[in-house]
From TrEMBL:
GO cellular component: plasma membrane
Name listed for the protein in its UniProt record: Olfactory receptor
Subcellular localization: Cell membrane; Membrane
Record-annotated membrane-spanning stretches: 24-45, 57-76, 96-118, 138-160, 201-223, 235-256, 268-287
MF GO annotations: G protein-coupled receptor activity; olfactory receptor activity
Length: 310
């Protein structure tokens, strides 16, 4: 239930208040965001147009790139624009929308990573039953469940945020709205809300990380029975996935599994999972994947041929 608040808007302090550093932030993160859009949209386009990338792994990779694009878009454009402005205000409603979209697409990305790990487990440990277990219908149902689960999680975040009364200071010491910094502005005891936050976001991050790492340990252990070539290919795929998991979940666990205290490093740590991971995912999944690179080359070759025939 929405409480009566004296605060109708918040002020985002951003990464820095120094005018010179703000210009540097603008240039660097504009380039990062353009890289995120270019890389992820290129993967989305390649998977959608290539006939060779029809396996479940690329079906899930499509949705990972989609969630990464939307996840970074929930925070990056605002941060980039705010770096040029003196008055970085955000309305209460816009703040709540940002909380919802940030957690929705962040949680969706987590669930998709779990599905990708499950896909690799079935492909490596049960290759003869792979196409039966990971049929297109099963994959579609799993993605729908991931979307529904993400909606439930982000709705819980919004309900927690709306339960907080704001009647005093309205400066958020962050570059986007999130429940953690909002707790510091609430004019009420936030112990229970923080407990629910840790049991919600913190539990999702921690449990998902443990599940993913355990699944990859099992996968890597099972590779001992494979041929040298098959072992090398599977190992390359798993290592790239593990890199993504560690880079994303490490900072998330640090932020969401502790009491409602903020540190000066929190904003820079948040950059790792809001900007860093969506930027690195396309590089990791294309540079380490021969099939994706070949599909991109084929699309480019067909485009050049079609352009030459005009």
């Amino acid at each position: 239930m929405l409480l009566n608040n004296n605060v109708t808007e918040f002020i985002l302090l951003g990464l820095t208040q120094d005018p010179v550093k703000k210009k540097i932030v603008f240039v660097i993160f504009l380039l990062f965001y353009l890289g995120i859009l270019l890389g992820n949209l290129l993967i989305i386009f390649t998977i959608k147009t290539s006939r060779t990338l029809g396996s479940p792994m690329y079906f899930f990779l499509f949705y990972l790139s989609l969630s990464d694009t939307c996840f970074s878009t929930s925070t990056a454009p605002r941060m980039i624009v705010d770096a040029l402005l003196k008055n970085n205000t955000i309305s209460f409603s816009e703040c709540m929308i940002q909380v919802f979209s940030f957690h929705f697409f962040g949680c969706l990305g987590i669930f998709i990573l779990i599905l990708m790990a499950a896909d690799r487990y079935v492909a490596i440990c049960k290759p003869l039953h792979y196409m039966t277990i990971m049929s297109r219908r099963v994959c579609s149902v799993l993605v729908i469940v991931a979307w529904v689960g993400s909606c439930v999680h982000s709705s819980a975040q919004i309900l927690l945020a709306l339960s907080l009364p704001f009647c005093g200071p309205n400066e958020i010491d962050h570059y986007f709205c999130d429940l953690q910094p909002l707790l510091n502005l609430a004019c009420a005891d936030t112990y229970m809300v923080n407990l629910l936050l840790v049991s919600n976001s913190g539990a999702i991050c921690t449990v998902s990380f443990v599940m993913l790492m355990f699944s990859y340990v099992v996968i890597l252990y099972s590779l001992r029975n494979h041929s040298a070539e098959g072992r090398k290919k599977a190992l390359s795929t798993c290592i790239s996935h593990i890199i993504v998991v560690v880079l994303f979940f490490g900072p998330c666990i640090f932020i969401y599994t502790r009491p409602a205290t903020t540190f000066s490093m929190d904003k820079m740590i948040a950059v790792f999972y809001t900007i860093g991971t969506p930027l690195l995912n396309p590089l990791i999944y294309t540079l380490r994947n021969a099939e994706v690179k070949n599909a991109m080359r084929n699309i480019w070759s067909k485009k050049q041929i079609s352009d030459g025939q005009r």
